[in-house]
Design a protein that fits this description.
Largest sheet: 5 strands, parallel
CATH superfamily: SGNH hydrolase
Strand order of the largest sheet: 6-5-7-8-9
Radius of gyration: 23 Å
Distance between the termini: 84 Å
Strand content: 5-15%
CATH architecture: 3-Layer(aba) Sandwich
Shape: elongated
Number of helices: 11
Order of helices and strands: HEEEEEHHEHEHHHHEHEHH
CATH class: Alpha Beta
Length: 341
């Protein structure tokens, strides 16, 4: 009996040591693969900063004229300021009402000119039509997700000192960032056993089985990230919660705008409504004013609102985005700041 007890203890200790070693090896492997991916990343549009949780940044002080897509005869232009964001240099000494936009390529305004991007249009409408003294900072970067948008806000909220933060939520915002992978320390944040999480979390496990031919990929479907067991929507929701908390800690209002996917047919055929509903529910749960822009496009032809051959919202869509947003922003605008010497 005593011998069996000793054998059991030895087995338990051996198993525990093996699991700890396996976990250590797995973490080491993930960090090595991450470093390899970052080292291999090279793009004329971006710089890569390992000191930041968002890693990927636009190349500062650059301007480009690009084709809307390969083989197109249509061109668009943009410029990146010294801080690595689209538009004019940020005036950090301005005493106007400051509006900070977070988002991805929809907010950045991919494939349309600087003057047509909706954060820029919001600023123009507030100044010209409503005579408001405002400054709008566009922190949208293509390929970002809600997780990286949270990281950007943490880095910039105390620098830009906004009076209002706006989060543009797009249908792929629960997906991991494009161009570079997330750091393992972010992917496995708050996870005690990374290896267990990787193999037994639902959609990762299905992907693992796919490597052995037991599950064929059907391509990326944003709705998959919102299935009940998916890690993606949980991470996206957690990032929104953190953004909300960060704003509340600094007494800065936050608004969420849910932007429709213009590549999808609007109306009853629009298949991504569950994502709109989920994000609206998150906003209500976190007590954040949340506005879904899909109903404003419901009876419209989606092909009139995208960049032909490319897929991002065109200037017409961005103008409508801005018109809707301004009406929701106006109540938050306070009197201009007074410079007290």
């Amino acid at each position: 009996m005593q011998k069996n007890y000793v054998n059991f203890i030895l087995l338990f200790v051996t198993t525990l040591i093996s699991l700890v070693l396996a976990e250590f090896c797995f973490r080491t492997y993930k960090f090595i693969k991450y470093e390899q991916a970052i080292s291999a990343s090279n793009h004329e549009l971006f710089v890569f900063d390992r000191t930041k949780d968002y890693v990927l940044k636009m190349r500062p002080n650059t301007s480009r004229i690009s084709k809307t897509f390969y083989g197109s005869n249509q061109y668009w232009k943009y410029k990146i300021n010294s801080y690595g964001f689209r538009g004019e240099p940020f005036d950090l000494n301005s005493h106007s009402f400051r509006v900070l936009f977070l988002g991805d390529s929809y907010t950045f305004g991919w494939a349309i000119n600087d003057e047509d991007v909706h954060p820029r249009k919001v600023e123009e409408i507030l100044k010209d039509r409503y005579k408001k003294d405002v400054s709008v900072f566009n922190l949208g970067v293509l390929g970002y997700s809600t997780i990286t948008e949270e990281a950007v806000l943490r880095d910039w909220i105390d620098v830009l000192k906004p009076d209002l933060v706006i989060l543009d939520y797009v249908m792929n915002d629960a997906e991991p960032p494009n161009y570079v992978p997330l750091s393992p320390k972010i992917t496995y944040k708050d996870k005690l056993f990374w290896m267990f999480y990787f193999f037994f979390e639902s959609d990762r496990y299905e992907r693992f089985l796919g490597y052995f031919g037991r599950k064929k990929s059907k391509g990326l479907d944003y709705l998959d990230g919102f299935k009940s067991k998916s890690w993606k929507w949980k991470a996206s929701k957690g990032a929104i919660k953190n953004i909300s908390t960060l704003c509340k800690e600094r007494n800065v209002p936050l608004i969420i705008f849910i932007l429709p996917d213009v590549t999808e047919k609007f109306g009853e055929l629009y298949k991504l409504k569950p994502i709109h509903s989920a994000v609206s529910e998150w906003g209500a749960e976190f007590d954040v004013p949340t506005y879904d822009l899909l109903p404003y496009f419901y009876d419209k032809n989606h092909e009139e609102y995208w960049v032909p051959g490319e897929g991002h919202p065109n200037a017409k869509a961005n103008k409508l985005f801005a018109e809707i947003m301004v009406e929701k922003i106006i109540p938050f605008i306070k009197k201009p700041k007074i410079n007290i010497m």
